[in-house]
Q: What sequence folds into this?
C-alpha cells in the first residue's frame, strides 16, 4: 500500500449526502486501483449541523478540518432553515468555514464535454473542446476593501490589492498552468484602475519564475466578450475577486449544465472541494441527482491537494467515457441519452470505469 491521506467529508443538506456517497464510492475504487489509502472523517455543516447541534458550524468542524489533508463538501441549505436569523442560517456556516480555512483562491473549471455540446446555449462549433480554468482571488479586492460606506446620498467601496495578495494568487495560477497547457491570461482593467496597474506588474514579476508558461493580459470587458466569442483561446484565466465572480459564472455556463461542474477553494492550508451547484431541495431524496460535479470535485482534490495526478486523470477520463457511452442522469436526459440512470448507478459506472482503467 502506498501513501495514506485523511479526507474530511461534509455531506450537508438536500442532495449533499447522495452525491457525496457516490464521490466516496469512486474515490475508494480509485484508491484501491492506484494503491493509496483514504481515511474519511465526517463533519457537520449547514442545516444538518443546526438540527443536531443548534449551530450551522459546530466548533468540532472548525477544528477538525485542520487535521485532514483536504475537505470534500456536498452542498448546504434548504427551505427548512430559510426563516432562521441570518447568523443561524446554513449559508453563514459555509462562509465562516471558508474564512477560517483561509482559502484565498477559487478554482472554477469550465469544461464542455463533446457529447453535451448541445446543452450549451452557444453554437457547438464555438464551445466544442472548451477547457478553461478560472482562478479567482477570493479574499481581497473591492468586496473586502476599506474604507467603505453607505449613506442614502452617497455610497462607496474601495478596491485594494497588496503586492503579496497578487503574487500569491498569480503563483496558484502559474502552478495550475504548469499542470495544464502552460498558458495564463491575466484579466484586469489596467487602462483605468491603479490597482490593476499593480496587478499587472506583479503578475509579470511572478511570471519570471515560470519561463515555460506563456502569459497574456486582457482587459475585463474584452475578456467577457472573448469568453462568448472564442472561448477555446483560454487555458488558465487569473483575475481579482469581482472580475472573477462575474467571469467564472459566465464561463461555467458555456457548458450549460450545473450538475457537471466542480470547484475548489485553496489557500496556504487545507483546500475545500465542492460542486458549483447547491443542495437542490426540489429533487433531494429521489435518487436522481447528478453526482458528476461532486465526483469531478473529488478528482480536483486528488490532483491539487494530494498530487495523485494519474488517479485524477483516471476519474476525469471515466466521466468522459460515461458521457460518451450515453449514460445520463435525469437532468441531462435531453442530450443524446442512451440510458437514464440513477445517482447511485452513475457513481457505480464511473467507479467501474476507473477500476478497469
Ligand atoms: P441549486 O443549485 O441547488 O438548484 C438549481 C436547480 O438545478 C434546481 O432545479 C436543481 O434541482 C438543479 N440541480 C442542481 N444540482 C443538481 C444536480 N447535481 N443534479 C441535478 N439537478 C441539479 O440552487 P438553488 O435552487 O438556488 O438553491 C437551493 C439551496 O441550495 C438553497 O438553500 C441555497 O441557499 C443552497 N445553495 C448552496 C450552495 C452551496 O452549498 N455551496 C450553493 C448554491 C446554493
A:
Amino acid at each position: 500500500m502506498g501513501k495514506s491521506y485523511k479526507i474530511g467529508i461534509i455531506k450537508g443538506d438536500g442532495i449533499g449526502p447522495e452525491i457525496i456517497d457516490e464521490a466516496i464510492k469512486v474515490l475508494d475504487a480509485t484508491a484501491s486501483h492506484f494503491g493509496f489509502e483514504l481515511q474519511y472523517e465526517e463533519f457537520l455543516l449547514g442545516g444538518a449541523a443546526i438540527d443536531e447541534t443548534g449551530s450551522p458550524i459546530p466548533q468540532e468542524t472548525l477544528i477538525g478540518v485542520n487535521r485532514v489533508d483536504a475537505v470534500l463538501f456536498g452542498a448546504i441549505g434548504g427551505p427548512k432553515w430559510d426563516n432562521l436569523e441570518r447568523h443561524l442560517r446554513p449559508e453563514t456556516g459555509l462562509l465562516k468555514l471558508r474564512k477560517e480555512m483561509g482559502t484565498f483562491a477559487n478554482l472554477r473549471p469550465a469544461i464542455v464535454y463533446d457529447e453535451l455540446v448541445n446543452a450549451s446555449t452557444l453554437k457547438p462549433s464555438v464551445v466544442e473542446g472548451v477547457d478553461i480554468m478560472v482562478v479567482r482571488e477570493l479574499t481581497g479586492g473591492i468586496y473586502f476593501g476599506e474604507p467603505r460606506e453607505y449613506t442614502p446620498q452617497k455610497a462607496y467601496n474601495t478596491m485594494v490589492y497588496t503586492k503579496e495578495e497578487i503574487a500569491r494568487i498569480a503563483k496558484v495560477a502559474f502552478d495550475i498552468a504548469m499542470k495544464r497547457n502552460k498558458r495564463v491570461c491575466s484579466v484586469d482593467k489596467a487602462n483605468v484602475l491603479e490597482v490593476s496597474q499593480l496587478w499587472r506588474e506583479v503578475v509579470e514579476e511572478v511570471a519570471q519564475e515560470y519561463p515555460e508558461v506563456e502569459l497574456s493580459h486582457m482587459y475585463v470587458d474584452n475578456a467577457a466578450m472573448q469568453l462568448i466569442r472564442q472561448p477555446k483561446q483560454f487555458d488558465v484565466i487569473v483575475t481579482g475577486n469581482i472580475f472573477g465572480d462575474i467571469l467564472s459564472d459566465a464561463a461555467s455556463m458555456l457548458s450549460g449544465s450545473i450538475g457537471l461542474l466542480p470547484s475548489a477553494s485553496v489557500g496556504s492550508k487545507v483546500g475545500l472541494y465542492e460542486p458549483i451547484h447547491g443542495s437542490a431541495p426540489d429533487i433531494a431524496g429521489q435518487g436522481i441527482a447528478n453526482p458528476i460535479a461532486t465526483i469531478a470535485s473529488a478528482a480536483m482534490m486528488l490532483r491539487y491537494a494530494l498530487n495523485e495526478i494519474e488517479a485524477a486523470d483516471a476519474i476525469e477520463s471515466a466521466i468522459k467515457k460515461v458521457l460518451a457511452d450515453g449514460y445520463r442522469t435525469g437532468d441531462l436526459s435531453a442530450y443524446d441519452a442512451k440510458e437514464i440512470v440513477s445517482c447511485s448507478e452513475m457513481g457505480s459506472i464511473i467507479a467501474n470505469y476507473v477500476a478497469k482503467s
